[in-house]
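Database export, one record per block. Field names are fixed; values are copied verbatim from the stored entry.
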Amino acid sequence: MSDDEQEERRDIAQICLTGHVINPSFRLRPQFNTNFCETCGRATTNHCGSCKAPIPGAMPLIAMSKQKYLKAYCGNCGTAYPWTRLAIDETRKLAIETVELSDDERNALVESVPSLFREGPGTPVAIARFQRITLKGSRKLLSDGLKHILYTLAAEGARRQIGGP
């Protein structure tokens, strides 16, 4: 089966607005679809809010456990999904609320947050800032909080380097 044929048969994923994967096989297994997330109570979606393209779900003939359903950005229009925007906003809020940070550190961290969610030239700089600021002194709560928010959606390279919660 060619890549095009496989992509054509790819299912749609249903995900809640905070990023919990509800059903990676929206069409094939509709009995698992829900209007609201059973984990957080937020509404669910199966398409990009900007361009209405379906969220890519399960691929045929590939073990479901080996697939990553939670994408940060729409592959059709490049818009951040709601869970990505929420994670970026919450990461910024946590940086702003952390009293142990100087204004310069806070501003540097807030400025770096979007680059942690995109794999690109700014990602290594954002990782270095994140590590420099969060590993300094007694900032374990900040570091743990940021890792918790970032780990699920951060770009693959950033996720490997910042570690999990």
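Remark 1: Helices lie at 3-9, 82-97, 103-116, 123-134, 140-151, 156-162.
Remark 2: The radius of gyration is 18 Å.
End of record.
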